[in-house]
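STRUCTURE:
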């Protein structure tokens, strides 16, 4: 069976911790007048969101104790005039030190922590050692563009808002979307962002969901040999047809495109199956 990381009958509590003075808005992309949206995270679907802007240490821990969030999302410093996400600065307090940051996360530990800040791998691994089941972070890069981060963030939380599925599947879907749109698509990101090193990408620490298939009962006539020869999955319909229509701009079907589609569709299928098992759909 699929294991959901939260009770599907309850909303997930999301605490958003922001730095700097940037908020939801649109920015120009390139010189052709295009606008890129930066929507704020708000309560919707399975998510109940609360946002903190440049909190003090006491304010943050008070909210942590009161809310007991399922998801903690930390965004690095953003300024109105910049197109990059900076380090974790809460007002004048620098919380980038690994030991200090980890000490701020008090029990009960949240199931998911998302670090949207550069060079956050050490903090992510330390949180995992402390006992946080799943940590999402950006690999050790000195630069994260606000455009790429926003695209990944919106894809990630779109899945978490709509389903009680596993954190791994939500990440896989968002990561596939990031690879598909942010590595090549000039309609999504300006040329300056497309020239960023391809090794800059979001990462996931934690166990993937486990699927348990109940073994078939032994036949009273066939014995062990007949059981071992039977498939684990039995299809009762004589014919099973699955039609899939993928639409997009004309392009070369390379490994990046096909791999992203495969991972994204697999993640969506897993979340749908998980929702059916939880009785949501």
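SEQUENCE:
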């Amino acid at each position: 069976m699929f294991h959901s990381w939260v009770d599907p009958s309850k909303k997930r509590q999301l605490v958003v911790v922001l730095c700097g003075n940037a908020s939801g808005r649109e920015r120009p992309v390139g010189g052709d007048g295009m606008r890129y949206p930066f929507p704020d995270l708000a309560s919707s679907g399975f998510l109940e969101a609360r946002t903190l802007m440049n909190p003090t240490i006491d304010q943050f821990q008070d909210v942590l104790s009161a809310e007991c969030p399922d998801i903690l999302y930390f965004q690095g410093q953003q300024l109105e005039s910049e197109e990059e996400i900076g380090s974790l600065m809460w007002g004048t307090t620098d919380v980038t030190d690994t030991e200090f940051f980890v000490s701020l996360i008090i029990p009960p530990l949240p199931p998911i922590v998302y670090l949207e800040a550069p060079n956050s791998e050490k903090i992510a691994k330390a949180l995992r050692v402390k006992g946080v089941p799943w940590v999402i972070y950006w690999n050790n890069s000195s630069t994260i563009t606000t455009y790429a981060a926003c695209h990944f963030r919106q894809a990630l939380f779109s899945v978490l808002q709509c389903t009680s599925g596993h954190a791994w599947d939500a990440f896989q879907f968002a990561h596939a979307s990031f690879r598909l749109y942010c590595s090549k698509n000039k309609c999504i990101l300006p040329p300056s962002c497309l020239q960023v090193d391809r090794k800059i990408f979001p990462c996931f620490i934690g166990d993937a969901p486990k699927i348990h298939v109940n073994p078939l009962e032994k036949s009273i006539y066939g014995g062990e040999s007949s059981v071992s020869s039977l498939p684990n999955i039995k299809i009762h319909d004589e014919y099973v047809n699955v039609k899939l229509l993928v639409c997009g701009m004309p392009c070369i079907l390379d490994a990046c495109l096909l791999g992203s589609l495969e991972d994204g569709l697999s993640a969506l299928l897993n979340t749908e199956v998980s929702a059916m098992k939880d009785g949501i759909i």
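REMARK: Residues 12-211+253-277 form one domain.
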